[in-house]
Amino acid sequence: MLEKLRRNLTLPAVEQRSIQLAGVPVTYTLKRSKRRSIGLRIDDHGLTVTIPLRTSEKWLYSVLNEKADWVVEKLGSWKTKKIVSPTWVDGEKLPFRGETFILRIFPSLFNSPPQLRGEQLHLFLKDICDEKNIEKVVTKWYRLEAERVFQECVAHYAPLMSVAPKQIKLSAARTQWGSCTSDGVVRFNWHLVRMPLHLIDYVVVHELAHLIEMNHSAAFWRVVEGACPDYKKCRAELRSFGISE
Length: 245
Prior knowledge:
Layout: H1 2-8, E1 14-21, E2 24-33, E3 39-43, E4 46-52, H2 57-66, H3 68-81, E5 93-96, E6 99-107, E7 112-117, E8 120-125, H4 131-161, E9 167-171, E10 178-180, E11 185-189, H5 197-209, H6 218-227, H7 231-239
Parallel strand pairs: 2-4, 6-8, 9-11
Antiparallel strand pairs: 1-2, 3-4, 5-6, 7-8, 10-11
């Protein structure tokens, strides 16, 4: 009778669970659906396991343990390589053009633009505890620097590739480092300014190449390779951050 009652209980569609995999504690999201097999997905939200509605615990644990090494490796890769949002306080480390700078915040009677001094970014603010304002000020500085860096890169590569973009704009896309329209408008994700310069160069070359080939054909990649011989290595490195070109 008890067994019958257990079978009739409605199981939650989504659960948060924890398990030891390859000696590492792993928290994951468990989802139940009408699918017939168990699926594993790892992204910036962590591990998500999707299972059929009446999957046994034994089957679930066997699949997770079978994939334990893969899960731990992929979770570690996301943790170390995805872009992590900083905390907006004095002493925070900020990535910029592949280097790390220290955010220094000083009290001042007037707010003034950030100043890069050596390996530190200095902010002079009336309220040094207002994290939302600090984020706003630093983000504005990032965007201005990104615009300057992209303009310099385009000015270098466009003549080499015999192209002339109609307009260069910034974007804040969650899924793309850059884009190019058929009418010659090229957009670059301002977050790129945090990355090493060779990756910025690659994205610039990639988008400028679309002014010649509006596709990802073999001809397109030949154009990219002509200006960026190490493009395959750069492309793989960029993908490790979870955003495509």
